[in-house]
Design goal:
By secondary structure, the protein is mainly α. Helices cover 65% and strands 0% of the residues. It has one domain.
């Protein structure tokens, strides 16, 4: 397969940093943590040129050029559950389907949330957009591989993990607000600061799954995939979650 020459639309404007706009959307997110549209607005307001910089890093990685040449669209693969359920028990794909069904999620649903936000901004059909979509579409797969759940602490820790891998002020801001808010409400024994520090350390140590062939990754045994990708266990997060579970019937309540 002939390597694809990366294409970025020259009409793309610069991305100014808009902190007041970010705070406006953060207040909405704090009021409803399930309002995913606000996450995309915060990222848009704060990330500046970080996506371009990370795209260059992706292209310089061993697998990035091949992934760009393939230019796969992940939502159809991830939402086609029948082939994933035909994989062996303990595979990444089976674990992914279990997670998505348990949480009542779909890859298409996350796309729809991002499209709500995109209506407010100019859009470009180029490789930088494809790369941004790939980062978005691997979010829930990262949940499965890292072991961070969809409770408030798990979501915040996963953002700290992905920020350590990919950068971006928007992700950092959301993760920092989660750390501050949960840390203020949780008991000291939960050591919320340690959870976020561990998440960043784990993110720096691990390989980035959006650089992988996701179809092949889904077929791997979960334990072997975690070992190959050097994804450490989130021990501080699990310990904190156990402490919170003793205090709250629903661990998400700590961030309410």
């Amino acid at each position: 397969m002939t390597p694809r020459v990366p294409s970025i639309d020259p009409a793309r404007p610069g991305q100014p940093i808009r902190p007041f706009k970010a705070w406006h959307h953060m207040k909405k997110l704090l009021a409803d943590k399930e309002d995913t549209e606000q996450v995309f607005e915060i990222i848009q307001a704060l990330n500046g040129e970080s996506l371009r910089r990370d795209f260059k890093r992706f292209l310089a990685s061993p697998n990035g050029p091949q992934r760009l040449t393939e230019r796969a669209s992940l939502p159809p693969l991830l939402d086609d559950h029948a082939p994933l359920l035909a994989l062996p028990e303990g595979s990444v794909g089976r674990a992914y389907v279990d997670f998505m069904r348990r949480e009542q999620l779909s890859a298409a649903g996350l796309v729809a949330e991002s499209e709500k936000q995109r209506r407010n901004h100019p859009q470009f059909d180029d490789d930088l957009s494809w790369y941004g979509d790939r980062l978005r579409d691997t979010h829930d797969l990262n949940h499965v591989l890292t072991g961070y759940g969809r409770d408030a602490l798990g979501e915040g820790a996963l953002l700290a993990y992905t920020h350590a891998q990919n950068g971006g002020r928007g992700i950092w801001f959301i993760a920092s607000m989660a750390r501050r808010r949960i840390g203020r409400l949780a008991p000291p024994a939960a050591n919320i600061a340690k959870v976020f520090e561990e998440a960043r350390k784990n993110g720096r140590a691990a390989r980035r799954i959006h650089e992988e062939n996701v179809e092949e990754l889904l077929a791997e045994p979960l334990a072997e995939a975690r070992q190959r990708l050097n994804i450490p266990k989130p021990t501080a997060y699990k310990a904190a979650l156990a402490i919170l579970a003793d205090l709250y019937p629903d661990p998400q309540a700590v961030a309410a």
